[in-house]
């Protein structure tokens, strides 16, 4: 693994590399430009420590995850195989700024289908978490749901009228929430601070 | 001891009381008749799943707080929602296996004077029906066989996957469980293409186009199978196919008109409850034709 990426993704391109390309592509092939994406060499080690991502180095790019992914079937914008590869290569900045991360529905088909036991959906969840933590940006809906939980204990603000209607229909009272304790848990996990300062985006525009 | 009525702490979650009281009403009716005692949560917070994408540690801690509340009551949790089941069950299983994770979560919970011990189980309605009440007892309670109708099932992702958390010892796996439960009512349960495919609802907040295409495809498969109704056991799947069905029809200029029933509504009809008692009038896609074939079959 180490050697593979080192050879193919070094930012230094020598004349020898150009010669090698010409041997395959023909003498007329001129290497005009190469885009080098910044590799974060510690990212792989960081990822390997995360529960759920342990096996990502075992991914051999068979593409079963993408083939079975319902989102990929409707849009090539979201591609779990590619995400797994980018993690292996350490393309941290590119991954964390990619809004396509937010298209995973967490159906977990990729997890059950992977022949190598890689939990691709868990990797996506880890990347989302990291993106929120380090870039301080999250979907508006996530921020709303989180703030509702903080304020009411429930993911929605359930209107009084609906609570009264429950009683009228013979349903029991909704359990109350201990908001003090919930706020404390938001605090100890550091999320209170994150959510207060986080920017939001509303939609993920799909670009094919 | 064996004849004691089973008891559970009912975990309603957020979406059912907010948007789908029909699911709760029908589930409570059916479970009561089958001799299940439901105890209300003494205190509640969201299962944590909605914040998992933004902070896994907070989500897991919120989930575990609910598990601790159930431990104090010494009762297993019964959920009606796939989202709540999937998340609470997964966190419960990981906590039992992974000592490091358990220590981390317990450190957080220590701040509010709680500690997870790993004494309870999390079950979804369909596990309670199939495993604890049992097919035989349900069959005995069916008063009106629904053999005149054909339906399709949609179990939903978080009851199916990841299978390392959802598969239960000695239990039936995958969508077979819901199919068998449907057959107990006498109704025919049809097979169709991609039965285990996702409804798409979890991302509807950031992108409507893809989930609507997914739901449209599902409804097409169900229509092609010639089903008279779709049966769900999850509020999110139900919202996608019932509440959003008319939007999907308008967007793609197609007509489905497939009523979507919560499983306890179907079972309730077979147990002799009236459609009103089961809140069938609250469905967006009106099940009139289905009810006609049930009550005018003779």
Low-confidence stretches of chain B: none
Mean pLDDT of chain A: 89
Helix content of chain B: 40-55%
Largest interface in this structure: A-B, 61 and 57 residues
* Strand percentage of chain B: 5-15%
Order of helices and strands of chain A: HHHHHHHHHEHHHHE
N-to-C SSE string of chain B, H for helix and E for strand: EHHEHEHHEHHEHHHEHEHHEHH
End-to-end Cα distance of chain A: 30 Å
Main sheet specs of chain A: 2 strands, parallel
Could you name the ranges of chain A where pLDDT drops below 50 across 5 or more consecutive residues? 1-10
- As an assembly, this protein is heterodimer
- Largest β sheet strand count, sense and barrel closure of chain B: 4 strands, parallel
Tally the helices of chain B: 15
Question: Care to describe what's here?
Answer:
The complex is a heterodimer of chains A (208) and B (298). Chain A is mainly alpha-helical and 208 residues long. Chain A has 13 helices and two strands; from the N terminus they run H-H-H-H-H-H-H-H-H-E-H-H-H-H-E. In chain A, 52% of the residues lie in helices and 3% in strands. In chain A, helix 6 crosses helix 9 and helix 10 packs across helix 12. The two termini of chain A are 30 Å apart. Chain B is α/β, with parallel strands linked by helices and 298 residues long. Chain B is globular. In chain B, helix 2 crosses helix 14 and helix 11 crosses helix 13. The relative contact order of chain B is 0.14. Chains A and B meet through helix 5, helix 8, helix 9, helix 10 and helix 11 of A and helix 1, helix 2, helix 3, helix 5 and helix 8 of B.
């Amino acid at each position: 693994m180490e050697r593979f990426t080192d050879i193919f993704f070094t930012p230094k391109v020598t004349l020898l590399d150009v010669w090698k390309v010409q041997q395959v592509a023909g003498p007329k092939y001129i290497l005009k430009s190469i885009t080098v994406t910044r590799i974060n060499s510690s990212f792989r080690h960081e990822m390997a420590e995360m529960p759920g991502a342990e096996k990502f180095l075992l991914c051999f790019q068979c593409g079963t995850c993408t083939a079975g992914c319902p989102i990929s079937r409707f849009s090539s914008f979201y591609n779990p195989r590619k995400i797994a590869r980018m993690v292996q290569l350490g393309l941290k900045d590119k991954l964390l700024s990619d809004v396509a991360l937010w298209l995973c529905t967490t159906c977990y088909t990729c997890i059950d289908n992977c022949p190598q036991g890689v939990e691709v959906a868990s990797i996506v969840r880890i990347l989302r978490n990291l993106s929120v933590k380090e870039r301080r940006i999250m979907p508006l809906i996530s921020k709303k749901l989180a703030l509702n939980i903080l304020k009411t204990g429930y993911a929605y603000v359930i209107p009084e009228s609906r609570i009264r209607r429950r009683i009228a229909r013979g349903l029991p009272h909704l359990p109350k929430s201990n908001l003090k304790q919930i706020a404390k848990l938001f605090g100890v996990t550091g999320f209170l601070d994150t959510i207060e300062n986080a920017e939001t985006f509303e939609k993920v525009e799909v670009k094919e | 001891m064996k004849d004691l009525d089973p008891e559970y702490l009912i975990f309603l979650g957020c979406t059912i009381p907010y948007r789908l009281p029909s699911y709760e009403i029908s589930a409570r009716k059916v479970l009561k008749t089958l001799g299940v005692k439901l105890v209300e949560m003494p205190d509640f917070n969201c299962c944590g799943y909605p914040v998992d994408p933004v902070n896994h540690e907070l989500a897991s801690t919120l989930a575990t707080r609910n598990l601790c509340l159930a431990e104090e009551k010494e009762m297993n949790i019964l959920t009606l929602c796939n989202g709540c089941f999937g998340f609470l069950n997964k966190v419960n299983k990981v906590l039992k296996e992974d000592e490091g994770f358990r220590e981390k979560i317990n450190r957080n919970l220590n701040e509010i004077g709680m500690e997870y011990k790993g004494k309870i189980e999390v079950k979804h309605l369909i596990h309670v029906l199939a495993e604890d009440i049992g097919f035989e007892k349900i069959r005995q309670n069916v008063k009106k066989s629904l053999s005149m109708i054909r339906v399709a099932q949609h179990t939903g992702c978080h009851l199916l996957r990841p299978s390392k958390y959802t598969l239960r010892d000695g239990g039936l796996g995958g969508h077979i469980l819901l199919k068998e439960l449907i057959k107990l009512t006498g109704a025919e349960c049809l097979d169709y293409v991609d039965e285990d495919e996702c409804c798409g609802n979890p991302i509807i907040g950031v992108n409507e186009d893809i989930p609507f295409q997914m739901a449209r495809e599902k409804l097409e498969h169900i229509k092609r199978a010639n089903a008279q109704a779709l049966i769900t056991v999850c509020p999110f799947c139900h919202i996608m196919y019932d509440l959003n069905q008319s939007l999907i029809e308008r967007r793609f200029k197609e007509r489905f008109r497939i009523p979507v029933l919560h499983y306890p509504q179907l079972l309730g009809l077979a147990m002799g409850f009236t459609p009103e008692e089961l809140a069938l009038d609250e469905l967006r896609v009106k099940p009139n034709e289905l009810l006609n074939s049930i009550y005018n079959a003779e």
